Amino acid sequence: MKDSKAYQLLIVLQDIKPLIGRRVLVPSSITFAKLHKVIQIAMGWKDCHLHQFTSDSAGPMKAKHEKFLRLSDVAKTKGPGSSFYYEYDTGDNWIHLVVLEQVIDSAPYPAFFDCLSGERACPPEDCGGPGGYADLLSILADPNHPEHKDRLDWVGGKFDPEKFDRAPISKKLKRLKL
Description:
The protein is α+β, with helices and mostly antiparallel strands. It has one domain: Structural Genomics Hypothetical 15.5 Kd Protein In mrcA-pckA Intergenic Region, Chain A (Roll), CATH 3.10.290. Helices cover 29% and strands 26% of the residues. The protein contains six helices and seven strands; from the N terminus they run E-E-H-E-E-H-H-E-E-E-H-H-H. It has helices spanning 32-43, 63-66, 71-78, 129-140, 148-154, 166-174, and strands at 5-13, 21-27, 51-55, 59-60, 83-88, 94-105, 114-119. The mean pLDDT is 91.
């Protein structure tokens, strides 16, 4: 399907300070099932857990609907500034606010799927949600903490919460097909 519009989305992980977020470009005809993949890649998650999309007005979306409902169906009625939530890992409760920032004529863009910008590293999988992540950062910052070595080993020997590299995310996103 040839798409004539692109959407610029801002994805912000909730209950985390300082902000962890991504700004991505997607085709307007993207399904919510494909948007799930975009968010996984953009944020750095490994797609190991359940997820769901919700909105204040409509509540949770059934997974079977994700394959058929397109982002353009939602955006048509609400337009730029509209938002919804993406929850990943219901145990850790990672809530992402997704905001449609703008609708763009896609002609200037050779690739619809792209990461335009971002802030900070994604938390490691299974670190315990926002509270567990705060604890992890505190422990990693204190070499004298009794759990420092174990947690450092758990994250693979190093973890820089400030690091963000757009290039590998964009490369993965550009491989996606509608």
